[in-house]
Every structure is written in C-alpha cells, then in structure tokens.
Design a protein that fits this description.
This protein has about 130 residues and is an alpha/beta fold. The chain has a single domain, classed as Endonuclease/exonuclease/phosphatase (Deoxyribonuclease I, Chain A, 4-Layer Sandwich). Helices cover about 15% and strands about 30% of the residues. It has a four-stranded mixed sheet with strand order 4-5-6-7, with no helix packed on it. It has a three-stranded mixed sheet with strand order 1-2-3, with no helix packed on it. InterPro entries: Endo/exonu/phosph_ase_sf. GO terms for molecular function: RNA-directed DNA polymerase activity. It comes from Plakobranchus ocellatus. This is Reverse transcriptase.
C-alpha cells in the first residue's frame, strides 16, 4: 500500500466517473468515502463507505452505532482496522458516541473522517 485515499465525495452517483478514474490510477489498498449520499432525498443514510481493492483479504466489522461509519479489518503486510467516518456539520456528536465507536475497532486502527470543522462566525467577523 503506497497511499491512503480519503475523499469527501459529496455524492457517490454524481462523482462515479471520477471515482472510477481515481480507483484505476491509485495503488491504494483501500479508499474511504464520506458524504456518499446513497439514500434517497436529503443526506441521512449511507454517508460513509469503505472500498477495498480486489484480492485483499478483509473482514467487515458490524458496528453498533448511530454514527455514519463503515469499518473493516484488512490483511496487508500487517493487519489493520480501517474506519470511514462522517460527522455532518449540524449534528452534535458526543464524546461518548465516539468512544463507543472506537471501542468496537480492533487495534491498531485508522479512522479517516470528514470532520466538518467549520468555525462559527459572529456578527462583524466575516
């Protein structure tokens, strides 16, 4: 694995052709995607995905969480757990829900996420 690819894709279907180009050119063992918008209507489900290259052994992790997350344990030179996580900008996330997610991930793990760290702008601070 030469690279790790993380992409806030902002719509899986609308960027499918670009995703195919990326996958064909990338030597990455896996790609994490956020803002996939796989559900119908406004974003609500299917917001995070983990794509793993053919031929790589992996085991999907059935996460018990209300967060938009997908995870798998991947067998490369060493075994690694990878988690794709999406935290929507207007949805509060508790430290407890993040801690509960992290507890479900076998170590060592790597979490790739679109953190949506938008600064709050007050009046006159534009």
């Amino acid at each position: 694995m030469d690279t790790v690819v993380q992409w806030s894709i902002r719509g899986f279907r609308s960027n499918f052709e670009e995703l195919k180009l990326l996958l064909n050119r990338s030597q990455s063992a896996f790609v994490t995607l956020q803002e996939c918008r796989l559900g119908e209507g406004p974003p609500r489900g299917g917001e995070s995905a983990l794509l793993i290259r053919n031929g790589i052994r992996f085991s999907e992790i059935d996460l018990k969480t209300g967060l938009h997350a997908a995870a798998a344990t991947i067998s490369l030179e060493k075994t690694l757990t990878v988690c794709s996580l999406y935290l929507p900008p207007n949805s509060p996330v508790s430290k407890i829900s993040l801690a509960e997610l992290f507890e479900q991930l076998p170590k060592p793990f790597l979490v790739l996420e679109d953190f949506n760290a938008h600064p709050r702008v007050g009046p006159g601070e534009e």
